[in-house]
Amino acid sequence: MSIRERMSGNEAVSYAIKQINPDVMAAFPITPSTEIPQMVSTFIANGEMDTEFIPVESEHSSMSAALGASAAGARALTATSSCGLAYMWEILYVAASDRLPIVLALVNRALTGPININCDHSDSMGARDSGWIQIYAENNQEAYDNFIQSFRIAEHPDVKLPFMACQDGFITSHAVENIELLETEVVRNFVGEYNPENYLLNSEMPMAVGPYANSPFYMESKYNQRMAMKNAKKVILDVAKEFEAISGRSYGFFEKYKLDDADVAIVIIGSAAGTSKEAVDKLREQGIKAGVLKIRVFRPFPGEEIAEALKNVKYAAILDRAESFSAYGGPLGSEIKSALYDAKSDCTAINYFYGIGGRDYTVEAAEGVFEELIDIMNGNKEIEQFKYIGLRK
Amino acid sequence: MAFNFKEVMSKPERLAPGHRMCAGCGGTITVRTVLRALKPEDKAVIGNATGCLEVSSFMYPYTAWEDSYIHNAFENAGSTLSGVETAYYALKKKGKIKDNYKFITFGGDGGTYDIGLQSLSGAMERNHDLVYVCYDNGAYMNTGIQRSSATPMYADTTTTPVGKNSVGKMQNRKDLASIIANHDIPYVGQSTLIGTMKDLYEKAERAIYTPGAAFLNVMSPCPRGWRYETADIMKICKLAVETCYWPLFEVIEGRWILNYEPKKKLPIEDFLRPQGRFKHLFKPENEELLVKYQEEVDRRWEELLYKCAR
Fold first, then answer.
1. Cα(A139)–Cα(A249) distance, integer angstroms
2. How many CA atoms lie within 13 A of A101 on its CB side?
3. Would the ipTM clear 0.95, i.e. be above it?
4. Domain count across chain B
5. For a Cys-Cys bond, which of A101, A215, B81, B218 suits B105, CB 3.0-4.6 Å?
6. Min CA distance, B14 vs chain A (Å)?
7. Residue B63: closest C-alpha in chain A
8. CATH number, residue B180
């Protein structure tokens, strides 16, 4: 029996944490993720869960303490946003290299400066090469569902990688929506006990973590991380299937929205997918074959599957909510173009930037993108790469 | 229990031989002495900040540590062990762990006084039941003898080189033991390698078996960085104590206790002279610097006596 509720994204993730009842959480407040450690602390204070909470003095220490706890054999997590993630940077790499299944509830926010508390993806996109799994939510329901699946994926013996469960700051984290929650017993049975093979507190077999490894071994350790990330693809789909069995909600690497017969499409991550779908519905009413490809899994990057999903699309707008300052493409644009090239795809990809630092992305803006794609398709407009949507003139 | 040298020294080694620390390294002696203070039946998890000790003791695929060991990064040994210690309570509470564990982390002065100070301060303030041991050799030795905030005044280091316009490091040494004592934690001890190691051994035992956070600051000479004859390490440590450059004290529940007061305080020159890093101080034109040095040592010693209500 599912429970119908109304919750913000932060409430949904905090509720998922309470249901999972992990061993250790270390966190430091930063807008817009602050509510998560606050709510978890309150659940603990009221005896609703028995996770040990470490109120650390910085995000650097929250990741470091989560790493120590995870290596010790505990199911460990943290939450942060923006500069908090940036401050953890070095330890993100250590966590991935130590193959520790730490889960991080990331509430996406623009990376400073100028300082800005609103949503974009510059925080997590900057960490895209740190060796973490990254899964993004469109709405509160997905933020909850992704979090419930997180430990299962991260802790899988074929994976053993840290996991970033991302949702859009304020847009999903603070907006209250209807949500269907699972019963706690169902969640606990689904997530299961964490019994790692090797851990520091195993008195039968002491373990050393975090070696100095020079050229004779370093490259192999990176290759193993690569293989684990590759393995994660199957595990993500398997776990999604099991999750569907308990929830009725199905998940994959991405969601195709009216995409199969689409001539033009927007490829996008996170809450703005909803806005883009709204535009698709409007255009479909006018007989225009528009669609959306919403990317859920960005690490591992499902390049072949994305190219396959776009194979019938003539023109695709890849919308990036983060700059990479290459003076060329954004992270999503560059990687999807590369996947289309490898697949010898006939789909032409045009990379846009939108929503940077919380700039509004409206249904009208999405319609504008589709109109441009149609004009290009009809030969009425030249392709213009790397446009900023809604930029003040 | 009274200190029995023979008994203590015959305890099994928890840092196995075969590691790659330099011959005569003070840090290694500190580590072995501290680990001897563990009851043999107690398990331990050892933490370590990046530094000489880490890169020389856990070079993949070999480890010299008999106990479980974790190195995370340079600046976060305090918070890393906070996480390990908290995991212990979480798992113990759930009945997943039966054994008794103790938590000890080692960092050099770079990882402790400087880049790791925030992480250390957080771990101490939260009063995790762990011991942080600083093996203080007064410079970033692992990267090649650069100055740290633990480097003594006028020392010749590779970033405070003595030259035509320089007499070495211009600033005083940071008093870290005081800073940590002011966190109001249950136990702080300052020690070095003296005689039978009784002082360090007993402080380590107290630190490990006092519930809550404990900090040990252990002067651990580095023959390469200090440039003295390697075999003279025990003499150097003794001179540091007899000149009152490195006093032995404890702070137990906020109470300052002086452990040793020399009958006749030796002049600071006696400690400085055998060390190549202070060679320039003995040139006739630098006589004034030695006077200043003595004044600084005296000022700190008086301050300590005052704290210890002597």
1. 13
2. 25
3. yes
4. 1
5. B81
6. 12
7. A208
8. 3.40.50.970
**Cβ atoms of B103 and B81 closer than 8 Å:** yes
Distances (CA, A) of B171 to A19, A261, B152: 54, 73, 8
Closest CA to A51 of B94, B218, B238, B29: B94
CB-nearest partner of B90 from A24, A91, A210:
A24
Q: Are B85 and A69 in contact (CB under 8 A)?
A: no
Model pLDDT for residues A342-377, shown as the tens digit of each residue: 999 999 999 999 999 999 999 999 999 999 999 999
A325 touching B (Cβ < 8 Å):
no
Instruction: Confirm or reject contact between A24 and chain B (CB < 8 A).
Output: yes
Spatial strand order of the sheet with A76-80 comes to A52-55, A24-27, A76-80, A103-108, A163-168, A133-136, A297-299
- Residue pair A293/A309 in contact by the 8 Å Cβ criterion: yes
pLDDT at residue B1, as a whole number: 60
Nearest CA of chain B to the CA of A211: how many Å? 5
Describe chain A by its helix, strand, coil percentages, rounded to 5. 40, 20, 40
Give the three-state DSSP class for B89.
Answer: helix
With CA atoms as reference, the chain B residue closest to A218 would be B60
| Residues facing residue A330 across a β-bridge | none
Total H helices, total E strands in chain B = 12, 8
**Burial per residue of B135-174, b for 16 or more beta-carbon CB atoms within 10 angstroms, e otherwise:** bbbbbbbbeebbbbbbbbbbbbbeebebeeeebbbeeebb
Single-letter amino acid code for the residue at B71: H
Q: A53, A61, A67: best mutation site toward chain B, by most B Cβ within 10 Å?
A: A61
Tens-place pLDDT, residues B75-90: 999 999 999 999 999 9
List the single residue in A with minimal CA-CA distance to B85.
A69
Of the candidates B79, B90, B122, the beta carbon closest to that of A23 is on: B90
Q: What is the largest CA-CA distance in chain B?
A: 69
Cβ-Cβ contacts under 8 Å between A and B: the total is 166
Average pLDDT, chain A: 98
Query: Locate tokens 């060329």: which residue?
Result: A328
**Total Cβ atoms within 10 A of residue A303:** 17
**Residue A226, min C-alpha distance to chain B (Å):** 20
Under an 8 A CB cutoff, do B82 and A207 touch?
no
pLDDT average, residue stretch A191-197: 97
Q: Which long-range contacts (CB under 8 A, 24 or more apart) does B257-264 make?
A: B257/B308, B258/B304, B258/B305, B258/B308, B258/B310, B259/B199, B260/B199, B261/B310
Element (DSSP H or E) covering residue A308: helix A303-309
Contacts of A70 in chain B (CB under 8 A): 83, 87
Do B70 and A208 make contact, defined as CB atoms within 8 angstroms?
yes
* Residue A125 near residue A96, CB atoms below 8 Å: no
Chain A hits for B65, CB-CB cut-off 8 Å, are 206, 208
Distance CA A207, CA A209 (A): 6
Interface test with B, best of A28, A53, A54, A221 (most B CBs within 10 A): A54
* Domain around B16: 5-309
- Report pLDDT for A2: 87
Residues of A in contact with B67 (CB under 8 A): 206
Q: Is the CB of A56 inside 8 Å of chain B's CB atoms?
A: yes
